[in-house]
């Protein structure tokens, strides 16, 4: 094989860091570019609420996906098992073209995801889809045995209204390292670096960041 250039080695090192919870220099640049592109594609939309007859506005929506089982799930496994099917549904069914997502851990040590998009998603649709994915993966059986239904409150949807500098806010949040409190890899205390992809963006953003790097 041909020897790798310094640029290739640098990119490989930064990419591998992203998969253990670290936000590398290259990742920070890509995150900033992805967020900047998302905001460029997200003009404020004004509409009238038919129930209240009030004038409202919308630009970005924050979606939160939570795992409802007591079992601590794996970041590396859930990217393919749970997050990708949800993102595929957003793109193919809800026609979401622009988004960025970030993995994070709750205080109890459980994984959850945050997705920022410029399209409003109705909360019942998101919950139904996420719970369907959870049920398919066996994560709602414990809840069902206790409550006799699968309609667990596993998602949250809210629009962004009160954040003045949304770009700085998103970049700061997305650049946080992801540290697991559950010690899923049996690492020493304070060294619980996770293994798996911790952030991503829509295809359009990926193409844009790739073009800027070339």
Notable features of this structure?
single chain; 214 residues; alpha+beta; 7 helices; 41% helix
Outline the secondary-structure elements.
Layout: H1 6-18, H2 25-40, E1 45-48, E2 55-58, E3 61-66, H3 75-92, E4 99-105, E5 111-117, H4 123-136, H5 141-147, E6 155-159, H6 166-174, E7 199-201, H7 203-213
Antiparallel strand pairs: 1-2, 3-5, 3-6, 4-5, 4-7
Helix pairs in contact: 2-6, 2-7, 3-4
Report on this model:
The protein is of the alpha+beta class. 41% of the residues lie in helices and 17% in strands. It has helices spanning 6-18, 25-40, 75-92, 123-136, 141-147, 166-174, 203-213; strands at 45-48, 55-58, 61-66, 99-105, 111-117, 155-159, 199-201. The strands form 2 sheets. It has a 5-stranded antiparallel beta sheet with strand order 6-3-5-4-7. It has a two-stranded antiparallel ribbon with strand order 1-2. The chain is globular and about 45 Å long.
Give a concise summary:
The chain is an alpha+beta fold. It has seven helices and seven strands.
């Amino acid at each position: 094989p041909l020897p790798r250039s310094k640029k290739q080695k640098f990119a490989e090192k930064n990419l591998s860091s992203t998969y253990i919870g670290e936000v590398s220099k290259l990742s920070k640049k890509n995150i900033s570019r992805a967020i900047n592109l998302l905001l460029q594609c997200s003009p404020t939309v004004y509409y009238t609420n038919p129930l209240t007859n009030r004038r409202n506005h919308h630009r970005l929506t924050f979606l939160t996906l939570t795992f409802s089982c007591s079992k601590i799930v794996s970041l590396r496994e859930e990217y393919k098992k749970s997050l990708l099917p949800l993102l595929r549904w957003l793109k193919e069914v809800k026609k979401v073209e622009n988004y960025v997502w970030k993995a994070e851990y709750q205080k109890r040590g459980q994984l959850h995801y945050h997705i920022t998009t410029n399209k409003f998603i109705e909360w019942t649709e998101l919950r139904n889809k996420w719970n369907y994915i959870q049920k398919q993966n066996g994560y709602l059986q414990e809840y069902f045995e206790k409550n006799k239904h699968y309609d667990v409150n596993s998602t949250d949807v809210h629009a962004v209204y009160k954040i003045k500098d949304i770009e700085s806010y998103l970049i700061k949040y997305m650049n946080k390292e992801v540290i697991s409190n559950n010690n899923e890899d049996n690492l020493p205390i304070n060294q619980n670096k996770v293994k798996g992809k911790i952030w991503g963006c829509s295809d359009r953003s990926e193409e844009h960041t790739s073009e800027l790097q070339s």
